[in-house]
Amino acid sequence: MSVTTWATVAVFAAVYVLIATEWVHRVAAALGGAVVMLLVGATSPEDAFFSEHTGIDWNVLFLLLGMMLIVSVLKRTGVFEFVAIWAAKRSRGRPYRLMVLLILTTAVLSAWLDNVTTVLLIAPVTIAVCGRLGLPVVPYLIAEVMACNIGGAATLIGDPPNIMIGARAGLSFNDFLLHMAPITTFLILVFAVMARWMFRKAFSYDPERAERVMAMRERDAITDKRLLVISGVVIGLVMVCFVLHTALHLEPSVVAISGGLILLAVSRLRPEKVVADVEWQTLAFFAGLFVMVGAMVRTGVVTDIGEAAARATEGKLFGTSMALLFGSVVPSAVIDNIPFVASVSPIVSQIVESSGGTGRAGVLWWSFALGADLAGNATIIASSANVVTTALAGVYVWLRYFVLA
Question: Do the Cβ atoms of 368 and 348 come closer than 8 Å?
Fold first, then answer.
């Protein structure tokens, strides 16, 4: 290998270590690595910013940006608080029934929103409801974040790794619905049953506290009915376009960003407040990763690794798919599944091509996606939603025992 290739591998490995150990903020590590890749000649401005295969995937970034804008507007209607209170009342204060309803609610929301947004919207209301019922909040937050990681695997837009895999493999929104949604639905139902045993110590019923929850009015949570109606219409159109995007010849990114901008325009909200809710750090992190991975592709490292992996598996799809499914768990659990998928998806693409293309070999993509998505439940740092939920739980404990005691 050339000096540039060795430098590319060294920079990529160093950034991976920094992200895994969190010695440096992951956004700084990714963007710093991208800059070094440009400086050492591993990639060029043309390849980094304008190439579909070796540069920033703008379709992924604009799909994320569009959904972030939609959520930023929608959360101002109070609809998420409405859903959480509705679930609490339907449970009639019964702890296990409440947990099952929150699990199902979180799973459905996470299939259409990104995981971090889902937990940020549901967790605060869960803390309030558990407080009224006198229930320990941590088991409910853990159940929700696990449901979030499972439910997010169901659709193209439910989890950032799926968005990257869809873009790399050319998989549509309907492809994910067909292949991933049935599996995740089954897993959510299994998890809801397992929760009865996993969190059994958290299910203490207090009739008096349950009556207080039943007295809550979910309608009071809606703060802007006009905006809720408008948001519902726009989101409905966006979802229809997602399902029909292949027939309409529209990329999901075009659908998402169009929906986000239209909703922003008709919402009458101050644009700077809506835009302030966009997770710009996440978008910058993705951009840095794309440049680094593109450099690995451009220098031929990914091709060599992919061809070697294809030879090692000898074209055996079952063995390869199992290796991707279970082999994705450990690295995704150690360093967050987003950088892992960004790094490994080009290699999977090479293996798929070497195994005969996206026909029968397409099962490799689904194994890879399922392994990376579900690995988000393995450790605290395995997914961004886990980190956010841990922080929220920490704030709750601090307030509960040190401020409000």
Answer: yes
Q: What is the pLDDT of residue 68?
A: 84
Place of tokens 């031929």: 300
Structure-token pair, residue 333: 């659990």
213, 129 contact by CB (below 8 A): yes
CA–CA dist 120, 68 (Å, integer): 13
Give the pLDDT score at 398.
43
Cβ burial of 306 (10 Å; 0-12, 13-18, 19+) is buried
Tell me the Cα Rg of the chain. Answer: 22
Number of other CB atoms surrounding residue 168 within 10 Å: 21
Q: Which two tokens stand for residue 320?
A: 């390869």
Structure tokens at 377: 């439940």
Ordered alpha helix ranges (H), 75-172:
79-90, 95-112, 115-133, 137-151, 160-169
Quickly count: other Cβ atoms within 10 Å of residue 399's Cβ.
Answer: 12
Give the CA count within 13 Å in the CB-facing half-sphere of 40.
23
Q: What are the angstrom distances between the C-alpha of 366 and each of 54, 136, 173, 251, 324? A: 23, 37, 13, 21, 9
CA dist 111 and 242 (Å) reads 13
What mean pLDDT value characterizes the chain?
82
The answer to whether residues 372 and 340 touch, using CB atoms and an 8 Å cutoff, is yes
- Ranges of residues in the chain with a pLDDT under 70 are 1, 302, 305-307, 309-315, 334-336, 355-361, 380-381, 391-405
> What is the C-alpha to C-alpha distance for residues 373 and 286, in angstroms, rounded to an integer?
17
CB within 8 Å of 384: residues ≥ 6 apart:
115, 116, 160, 282, 336, 338
Separation of alpha carbons 231 and 209, rounded Å:
34
Tokens of 96: 């296990």
Which residue bears the tokens 């937990």? 119
Residue pair 256/63 in contact by the 8 Å Cβ criterion? yes
Give the C-alpha distances (Å, rounded to integers) separating 10 from 15, 28, 227, 292, 305: 9, 17, 51, 11, 15
Distance of CA 5 to the CA centre of its chain: 32
Between the CA of residue 345 and those of 49, 164, 278, what are the distances in Å? 19, 8, 26
**Beta carbons within 10 angstroms of residue 264's beta carbon:** 18
